[in-house]
Design brief:
Elements lengths: L1 H29 L3 H26 L7 H8 L5 H29 L3 H14 L10 H16 L3 H28 L7 H26 L5 H12 L2 H16 L19 H31 L13 H21 L7 H29 L10 H29 L1
Helix pairs in contact: 1-2, 2-3, 2-7, 3-7, 4-5, 4-6, 4-7, 5-6, 6-7, 8-10, 8-11, 8-12, 9-11, 10-11, 11-14, 12-13, 12-14, 13-14
């Protein structure tokens, strides 16, 4: 019986893995997402490596043909721009490493001391910032070149084989760039939208948690601490959004797909960049708001029942909850941002921004009418009023930028 149970579990696990593989291939076939991009990259890398091997092994009959396919795969970057940039850096790094071996080898010969110098100089040059992530290839290329140099039997053979290494790397890089440019070159303009969506969603979800608690007077120290942690952890999402935006910009550089009709009008992402910047600043301001609420609860002893009594702030907190709710609605629309429906969304955002502006004025006026101590650092009223103005300014700016972008495209 135990063996039967173990067999069933093994069979179920195998079936589960098989289903996972089927789902992965279905997603790759049906949707232009991560799976399809991964599949394209594998197939394109295979094609580039195969072409490089054919040229180096069958055409040139090189003694070390693997340099070409290795180089072709190494520089198959996400964007055409990165392929060009990294291929130039990689070629430069290998050339420096090979040239260094040629100089030190002819001066000192292929002995241990020469290898130590090759390693020391190669690793030092690899720290040069201009080479970026390809800096380690200086030492790698130097080590391969040194082994080739040491195995050669004549000076002519040494020079020929060292030069051949550079030629093979050049062939591999060239084939890799050509394949990446001509075979389904990656166009990632949607990455800019995805960055805005991720930040907008994070912001609206946080604000959606805050405003009901303010309205229902259900703010305590633990809840404020959680809000503060969530706001401060948004730094990773900001970094990811920025990386996605840079990828979207880079995908346009030297990309022949820009000539296609559906991509012809996209020459920059300035509008999306401005919106992304406004959302970043808004997240920092919400973080400041949550810090103020958290400090208030810590100093107030946990609420109206603990510590000294608070001012009559009920109407003010209701107005603030209304304002945050209006901002959350704007964030929800930005979280669904889609260039295909951007005209309609921009009109909706403009209307929501007008409503939020009215609620923002209610916050400022309500604080004045209630005589709240805005200058008291132990109370959050001043921070809340200041941050409401800043948040409104950023959201208004983001909505206006999108509206101008739509008008320009029209």
């Amino acid at each position: 019986m135990a063996d039967m149970g173990a067999g069933q579990r093994t069979h179920s696990a195998a079936q589960g893995r098989l289903d996972h593989v089927r789902q992965w291939w279905r997603r790759a076939w049906d949707t232009p997402g991560y799976e399809r991009r991964t599949l394209f990259l594998v197939l394109k890398s295979t094609l580039a490596a195969t072409l490089a091997w054919v040229v180096s092994y069958y055409v040139l009959d090189a003694p070390s043909p693997a340099f070409a396919p290795f180089s072709a795969v190494l520089i198959m970057q996400v964007t055409v721009y990165q392929s060009l940039l990294q291929s130039l850096r990689y070629l430069g790094a290998v050339t420096v490493g090979v040239a260094m071996v040629a100089v030190l080898g002819f001066l000192g010969g292929p002995d241990l001391l020469t290898f130590v110098l090759v390693a020391l100089v190669g690793l030092s040059i690899g720290r040069w910032p201009a080479l970026g992530v390809q800096g380690t290839q200086v030492a790698t290329g130097a080590f391969f070149a040194f082994s080739t140099y040491a195995a050669a039997t004549s000076d002519t053979q040494k020079i020929t084989q060292l030069g051949e290494i550079i030629l093979l790397v050049l062939i591999g890089c060239g084939i890799g760039v050509i394949v990446n440019t001509t075979v389904a070159p990656p166009m990632r303009y949607r990455s800019a939208e995805q960055g805005i969506r991720s930040l907008s969603t994070a912001l609206s979800e946080l604000v959606n948690d805050i405003y009901p608690a303010l309205r229902e007077d259900d703010v305590d120290e633990e809840r404020c601490r959680q809000w503060r942690q969530r706001a401060e952890q948004a730094g990773n999402q900001i970094t990811q959004a920025r990386e996605g935006f840079r990828t979207a910009e880079e995908s346009l550089y030297f990309n022949p797909r820009r000539l296609l009709r559906r991509y012809r009008g996209r020459t920059s992402f300035e509008g999306y960049g401005a919106v992304l910047g406004a959302l970043e600043r808004s997240l920092y301001q919400v973080a400041s708001l949550t810090r103020g609420l958290h400090q208030w609860q810590e100093e107030d002893g946990g609420g109206r029942e603990g510590g000294e009594s608070r001012h009559d702030d009920r109407a003010f907190l209701d107005d603030y909850a209304d304002f945050l709710e209006a901002l959350a609605k704007i964030g929800e629309v930005l979280g669904r941002l889609d260039e295909d429906t951007l005209a309609e969304q921009s009109r909706q955002l403009d209307r929501l921004a007008d409503e939020a502006q009215e609620y923002c004025r209610n916050v400022t006026d309500g604080a004045s009418r209630a005589g709240l101590p805005l200058a008291d650092p132990a109370r959050p009223y001043g921070v809340l009023v200041v941050e409401s103005g800043r948040l409104m300014e950023e959201f208004r700016y983001a909505c206006d930028v999108l509206q101008r972008y739509v008008d320009q495209e029209a």
